[in-house]
Design goal:
The protein is α/β, with parallel strands linked by helices and 942 residues long. Helix content is 34%, strand content 19%. The chain is built from 28 helices and 37 strands. A seven-stranded mixed beta sheet has the order 27-33-32-31-30-28-29, sandwiched between helices. Strands 2-1-10-9 form a four-stranded mixed beta sheet. It is globular. The N and C termini lie far apart (88 Å).
């Protein structure tokens, strides 16, 4: 193994106080002994600043931090949370918490901000150490003592630089702490569960680290690269505690992201890193973006140890990485509750399979659904028994501990196979099992077989309903642009016939231009299953995907609109025109059944304004919107839709979503550029395009997204979609969104995705944001509305999200048009963001459930509408009537005092429809209005 240790600069050890205290034989003693055993050796190196720190210096800084914590009243067993980026400060403060006898509770910012208050209260934290840029209202309002720590490169409010006189005081590190006391509590959450705290003791961490290190060949000569967040278990255990307990050195650096792939090897080579702890997403990104010769050259020369865990590593990626870089990957397996259960060790390439054999002292069983043991080679759920099992789970609401027993078999929820040599392979998650005719089928083996074919870029295998078998196997594939599913399907069937038993072979194949994925790159099978369930209920008739051979230069690029002509040709918003008539009639005392308003009336309390910042509320704010509100929106998208956006560079708060759409179009369009708009379309889309000197190209309502390509010309610049749709309530599925993203990439278009009703559907799995597919928003602008989703339409607060380059252009329009949103309303929404959501969410669900009941009423009285399940709208057909939609609505309002909106406002192909809104009236009045609509249709039949 490459030796790349650095000695400290000749410091004498005689004057240094002991960092360990009396010698102890237990796990706490082994933890403390590292500081003395490795005192003069380099422990930390900062790849960004060049700063280094020895074990003795780190111990002195930890001692100083512990003294400050003691001064704050922190005592043995108290919990101290940490929310900081990767830095020397995190390491020193983390160790300082342990020195003080307290329990560390790392909180990752992208997770903790949404649930920070609940987490801090659940673990009864005595204090939280947080950097200013990660501070958020949820932390401030939690009631926990907040201590601010500035980043390493800007000085610090916290005395971790040197112990000083107070550092010489008689602090006994970990005084009174036993090896069965907790060292840390990590809060983790699945995609469908509340956060849960998992507590591990000193014995758990020290014992497990020793087992893993011995198996993987880690030791004092190992130099790690800290590229995972230290606030995740994989960061503060894999890349902090394990290097520390091994006496290794750690290069502190920024958390890995896709942009970092290009310069990935620079800190590795500059600092002699010889141990890399990767995850499957990082490996996938490196294979795609790291094209230079430096990495392969360095790996073949230094032969670094590469470990991989946290998720199953596809065999294709493993072999591709090992071939490209010429080094083996040592896989390991564990869970937050168990720590590491298995690991590969250094071996010849032919001897390595799966995630390695069990570590010493750990037992595992493979069982069927009745908990009966299976023979070697059979697939089943993995049960484990380990001396390093967590103490238990902390309830997020009450903070009580639900204990786990180290004597019991722990159900991992993972599926696997154990071979006769005791080597474990992970085949999938139990919740992803397909049960076909009573036989359990794991998707993993099928996905591996399909992925071996060069035409399959990514794939996901899921279950689909089957009338006799219960479930059948479906494969959803991403293929190269020049490959069709029909031409590759026979080859895939051949692959499966050779590699899989008959019952495992997919019964159906589907294609998506992109598979939805989480922010960490995991395929979102729940969204794929929701899409397939919907797709299989639709008409099975084949839908063509025509090309665009008609592209030519027939659009005159020199054609410009005179501004006065544009405004003159613009028409009033049809919905507003009719609602204004309602207001006038109501002022004269008329009782109008209002089925035309584009909002839902929610019961929302008025929170106090006197605790908002004054006089700041009277003045201009940041033209992007106040940072606190942008951060809350970014958190909400991460939590609700699993999409990450940069609140500093990608989000602009606007005076309503109309302004967001208009400014986005102004920033995109040149005179004469065409914008595709699918009918029925919200009334303002075509007018906004025209006001931006563009040309709206309306696509009739009987076409679907797979026909959009027919309308693309050499002048097409953008496509506008409304998801969910106003007025029909249609929700675009993952296939439709991914197809649009493919078109945008193919023809260099932009998708303007108006998601103003994103919360107005009961089944959240069915909603696919354009950001789920176009991860970098290179071709996408998302517009949304806090006013609409929170039932506060009169507040006029919206926002747009896109890539930083386009955001900068929209910002200029915002500055010249609005300057900034209403400052006082921004502060109000930021202050009460979570309270408003908590109150409106149940009311949104009630409105959508009411819509489903009203849909039954429509069917019962013979009214037909376009398909849709979301929002609070129906687009009702008046086709039997001889009246145009405007004539129909005028007569309905004048004679029956019922107001709906003419379909003509939503497109020329929609003149035989009316929009009915059900968000503002009682069921009784809505039903009476529907009866009046049906009666007028019958009375005016052609």
């Amino acid at each position: 193994m490459n030796k790349s240790r650095q000695k400290s600069s000749g410091r004498s050890t005689a004057a240094r106080p002991s960092t360990a205290g009396p010698s102890r034989p237990d796990a706490v003693g082994r933890f403390l002994a590292v500081f003395q055993d490795r005192a003069d050796e380099t422990f930390l190196l900062d790849a960004r600043t060049g700063r280094t720190g020895t074990y003795a210096e780190t111990g002195a800084a930890a001692r100083a931090a512990a003294l400050e914590l003691r001064a704050l009243g922190v005592r043995r067993g108290d919990r101290v949370a940490l929310s900081l980026d990767n830095s020397f400060s995190f390491v020193e403060l983390f160790l300082g918490v342990l020195y003080a006898g307290a329990v560390a509770v790392p909180l990752h910012p992208t997770f903790s901000r949404f649930k920070a208050g609940d987490i801090l209260r659940a673990c009864r934290a005595k204090a939280i150490l947080v950097s200013p840029d990660l501070m958020c209202p949820a932390i401030a309002e939690s009631g926990t003592r907040v201590v601010t720590v500035r980043p390493d490169d800007k000085g610090t409010d916290w005395p971790t630089r040197a112990a000083g006189p107070r550092g010489e005081a008689g602090l006994v590190p970990c005084e009174g702490v036993g090896e069965d006391d907790e060292l840390a509590i990590v809060f983790t959450s699945g995609t469908t569960s509340e956060p849960k705290g998992i507590g591990h003791t000193y014995r758990d961490f020290v014992t497990n680290a020793a087992l893993l290190s011995e198996r993987a060949g880690l030791g004092p000569d190992s130099r790690f690269l800290g590229l995972l967040p230290m606030t995740y278990l994989g960061g503060h255990y894999n890349l902090l505690l394990i290097p520390f307990l091994c006496g290794s050195s750690l290069v502190v650096t920024d958390v890995f992201d896709a942009k970092g792939a290009i310069r990935f090897w620079r800190p590795v080579m500059e600092h002699g890193v010889n141990t890399l702890w990767l995850v499957p997403t990082i490996i996938s990104i490196l294979l795609e973006f790291d094209r230079g010769p430096e990495g392969p050259r360095y790996c073949r020369k230094v032969r670094p140890t590469v470990l991989c865990g946290t998720a199953p590593l596809p065999a294709k990626h493993k072999s591709a990485f090992e071939e490209r870089y010429g080094i083996p990957i040592l896989e390991n397996y564990g869970l937050s509750e168990t720590l590491f259960l298995t690991s590969d060790g250094p071996a010849e390439p032919g001897q390595r399979t799966g995630v390695g054999p069990l570590l010493p002292g750990i037992a595992a069983r493979i069982v069927d659904r009745h908990d009966a043991d299976l023979s070697p080679g059979a697939e089943g759920e993995i049960l484990a028994r380990t001396p390093c099992l967590a103490r238990g789970y902390y309830d997020i609401r009450k903070g009580d501990l639900s204990p786990l027993s180290k004597e019991d078999w722990f159900a991992t929820g993972d599926l696997g196979i154990m071979d006769c040599r005791g080597t474990l392979s992970i085949t999938g998650r139990k919740k992803d099992l397909i049960i076909r005719g009573g036989i359990n089928i794991s998707p993993s083996a099928i996905e591996e077989a399909l992925s071996a074919h060069p035409a399959v870029l990514r794939c996901a295998v899921v279950g689909i309903p089957h009338r006799l078998l219960g479930e059948d196997v479906a494969a959803v594939l991403r293929l190269p642009p020049d490959t069709t599913l029909e031409e590759v399907k026979p080859k895939l069937r051949e692959v499966c016939e050779k590699a899989l038993p008959a019952i495992y072979r997919p019964a159906a194949y589907f294609e998506l231009p992109e598979l939805p994925q989480t922010t960490t790159g995991k395929i979102q099978k729940n969204k794929i299953r929701a899409w397939l369930a919907e797709k299989l209920q639709e008409d099975a008739a084949a839908r063509g995907r025509p090309g665009a051979p008609h592209l030519d230069a027939r659009i005159n690029a020199a054609r410009f609109f005179a501004p006065s002509k544009v405004v003159a040709e613009s028409v009033q918003a049809m919905s507003i025109k009719y609602n204004n008539r309602v207001y006038e009639m109501q002022r004269r005392g008329a009782d109008i059944t209002v089925l035309s308003l584009g909002e839902a009336f929610f019961d929302i309390p008025l929170y106090p304004f006197d605790d908002l910042p004054f006089p700041a509320g009277y003045h201009y704010s940041h033209s992007r919107g106040i940072p606190d509100l942008r951060e809350k929106l970014a958190e909400y998208f991460r939590e609700q839709y699993d999409v990450s956006f940069d609140p500093e560079l990608q989000i602009i708060i606007t005076a309503g979503s109309k302004a967001a759409i208009h400014m986005s179009l102004m920033s995109l369009l040149n005179p004469g550029d065409e914008v595709l708009i699918h009918e029925p379309a919200w009334v303002s889309y075509p007018e906004q395009v025209k006001l931006c000197y563009g040309v709206p190209v309306m696509i009739p309502h009987d076409k679907n997204v797979f026909h959009f390509e027919e309308y693309v010309t050499n002048r097409t610049k953008a496509v506008i979609i409304n998801n969910p749709n106003n007025p029909s309530g249609k929700v675009f599925n993952v296939e439709e969104i991914s197809h649009l993203c493919m078109l945008a990439e193919k023809y260099k278009l932009f998708i303007l995705s108006d998601e103003a009703y994103s919360d107005f559907l009961l089944d959240g799995e069915r909603f696919v944001s354009a950001g789920n597919i176009d991860k970098g928003l290179q071709h996408t602008v998302i517009c949304n509305s806090m006013s609409k989703n929170y039932g506060m339409s009169g507040w006029r607060v919206g926002y747009c999200i896109t890539n930083p380059a386009l955001t900068d252009q929209i910002l200029k329009v915002n500055q010249h048009l609005l300057t900034c949103p209403a400052t006082i309303l921004e502060h109000y929404l930021a202050k009460h963001f979570h309270d408003i959501i908590r109150i409106t969410k149940p009311q949104i669900a009630k409105v959508v459930r009411q819509r489903a009941e009203i849909a039954k009423r429509l069917d019962a009285i013979g009214l037909r509408s376009l398909p849709g399940t979301a929002t609070f709208y129906f687009f009702v057909s008046i086709a039997p009537s001889s009246l145009s939609s405007e004539e129909f609505c005028t007569r309905l309002l004048d004679h029956d005092h019922v107001c709906v909106v003419p379909g003509l406002g939503y497109g020329r192909s929609c003149d035989k429809f009316v929009r009915v809104s059900v968000g503002t009236e009682s069921l009784e009045r809505i039903y009476r209005g529907l009866d009046k609509i049906k009666a007028l249709i019958d009375a005016t039949k052609a």
